[in-house]
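--- STAGE predict ---
source: upstream dedup step, 1 unique chain passed
mode: sequence only
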Amino acid sequence: MKILLVDDSLTLLHENERALQRAGYQVVCAEDGESALRLAGEAAFDLILLDLLLPKIGGLEVLNHLKANPATAEIPVVVLSSLSEKNRDKLIAAGAEDYFEKNTLMPRRGLNLLCKALEDVMCRIQRKRGVPFVGTNVPPEGFRW
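--- STAGE serialize ---
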């Protein structure tokens, strides 16, 4: 599974990249909204993890562009942000699959719960699309998000 990870905090970007790679995901990173949109248009991604507070183009604008573009509209987007949970409803209405506050995914140094949260999100996406959950972080052969 190929994930586009977008975050301007290099510390968090590298920490999440390592956790995702250890779990077997293929990860491509972007540090700003402009790069995220360019990369999303150049390669096929199965999931996009998107920060909200980004340089050049903000996360909400990136989400709106992704969902308006037929080439990227079907890619699930999960927002990871340090902003409060009160933004959840607005982001879901804008097309995000889910929203997580960063501090709930990394409650303390050395503990990263991102992969577990993604497994739950992927299970929900698969159920919505009528694909049985297979219990791994790798979709069944031939499965397209």
